[in-house]
Amino acid sequence: MASEPKRGAVERRIADLRETIDQHNHCYYVLDSPEISDAEYDRLSRELIELEAAEPGLVTPDSPTQRIGAPPSDAFAPVEHRTRMMSLANADSQAELDAFFARVEKDLEETEIEYVCEPKMDGVAVAAIYEDGRYVRGATRGDGSVGEDITENIRTIRSLPLRLRIEAPGAVEVRGEAYIGIDEFKQINEERLDEGDTPFANPRNAAAGSLRQLDPKVAAARRLSTYLFALGQGGPAAFSTQWGALEWLKSAGLPVNPRSELVADSKQASAYCRRLRESRFGLPYQIDGVVIKVNRLDWQEALGATAKSPRWAIAYKFPPEEQTTTVIDIIAGVGRTGAVTPTAVMEPVVVAGVTVSRATLHNEDEVRRKDIRSGDKVVIRRAGDVIPEIVGPIVSERTGDEKEWSLPLECPECGARVVRPSGESVARCTNIACPKQIFERLVHFGSRGAMDIEGFGPAVAEHLLTSGRVRDVADIYSLSADDLEAIVPHFAKKENGKEPPKAAPKLARAIVASKKRPLEKVLFGLGIRHVGSGTAEILAAEFKEMDALAGADFERLQAIEEVGPKIAESIETFFQEQDNRRVIEKLRAAGVTMEAKAGPALAPTLAGPTWVFTGSLSGLSRAEAQSLVKERGGRAGSSVSAATDFVVAGSEAGGKLDKARKLGIKVLTEAEFVKMLDDKD
Ligand code: IVH
Fold first, then answer.
1. Which ligand 1 atom sits nearest the alpha carbon of residue 230?
2. If you measure from the C-alpha of residue 245 to the centroid of ligand 1, how many angstroms do you get, rounded to a whole number?
3. Is the pTM of this model over 0.70?
4. Residues 256 and 300 occupy one common structural domain
5. Range of the domain at 356
6. Chain centre to alpha carbon of residue 351
7. Same domain for 174 and 155?
8. 385 lines ligand 1 (CB under 6 A)
9. Structure confidence by residue, pLDDT tens digits, 33-92
10. Rounded to whole angstroms, how far apart are CA atoms 208 and 205?
């Protein structure tokens, strides 16, 4: 136990850290505008974890360290809602929507009625209760009167503050929708497939499944989000409209959908519906309509409710995005882990604005379960921006000529045996030297989420492999621009060409630039089974260097909270493989990052100044350049002002460069900028 004065100092530091971390969580998750680098955030979190570990008596349930602290439970206790959580009446067409507006106008005897329009999030309804500003309980809607106590799972939602940002005495219940974003949904499904689990059919099922996890650790790994749109029992009487309620929620630091709008009348509400219907596929989450609410609370009260739903609100549902087409063939493809996956090739059809001609059928069991045959007429759906999916065959239209699919016994790419271990749903090609697996691993290494080598796609990878110059991912670092030009036919100089070729030197520069990617990207790029980008981040933060990870045994790996036996075994096996170790040594020799960088300390001279990038850079994207600065503690601005310290000008730099010169700001070329980073690292 620390001495009293020291304990007092620790207590103050803990309070300070909690406040700072809460503030940065708010900037990152609610305002979508981070103010510090990830590394700096990690440093603050680690300091808090260490201080709390030394002084367990000071840990409180609202500390940001406690999001995944709770042990798994056996079942969820029932929670009675003080006021019913109602559902909404639906309008499936403009005519039904018009009927709603007409009824509201008639009942209120008013024609000028303001409405609040909100995206109808396709997730799971939840309620969170705060007492004296502290999060104490979370529940599902259940049947509206009694829900399930999912306090610990809701606590894992990063955008939900554990302490409100304003004074709120007593109990305040806030209500909203918990959901899983489309990127997270895709990632979860990839991981499930990789582990032989059946993928979730849609983000809503993924959210529901995650919230009902008995182990909060599992829920935490699913990265749920939430938007709130109502207050339940209690709460301040500080507003008299729905819009006021949203403003109050925002001021309390709670996440409110920024696409919500206050409109002047029913015409504008209909226009909002049309706009959102058009733009909904660009959203990072799935919505299934628009919720329209009478703005004034006294009018809401006057309109009242039926047994099930309020009479002052309606859910306008978008028409389903389904189409029919014909399956031409079912083919088996091989992925980088050797997984043999059936894909339906279909007559091209436009679904939700995109032409679709292929849909994954995931695995053998899925094909059987849905009974999809080659030649079948099928219903296909593309819900949101989510991968197209075959809903099922139209059995009544079968002619008898349809062909059932069976898993090939041999790899369609290399002819090796295909094995499906008992109890698993994934079948795999057994040849680790299968050329298709090597190809997919190479493409994965260069992909956006991994080493992010611009211009390094499947076509280039294919040529590099057939040339024999590249046998593993490390070989790409031995290629010069001239090599690339010689190997990749479409990079070759034009015979008569005066026009200088650009693609090969550009790719060569991008390959060199990728050596500076952080350790987690390298780890993810290696394609270790079960190590997705999230796990790679955790491993990089934990081990700090490749060698430490490579030397970690099963026990050490499993000691990490987020690493289970499957992942631990896979990592251990990967590093035991001689060939894998050899590739890592080659990467190290080429100068690829093998150590995690420790935040701003890495280049203190970049901490402080503001950088602006202008014009087009050749070896880096602007976002990459900005994150290189931020990783080193610098600031990246978008416009030039007296507060700008450096401007990096690429080709065709325009107004910003002129302004920088006028203000006497130091201007660097891209090469000077890269050299400066290299010198300092
Ligand atoms: S208001 C009394 N607003 O849709 C009104 N609901 O069918 C309560 N939902 O259970 C709901 N987005 O889970 C409201 N912006 C939004 C919503 C929304 C999604 C869900 C909610 C509710 C269901 C109603």
1. 1
2. 15
3. no
4. yes
5. 322-401
6. 24
7. yes
8. no
9. 778 877 788 889 889 988 998 888 888 888 988 876 666 667 789 999 988 899 999 998
10. 5
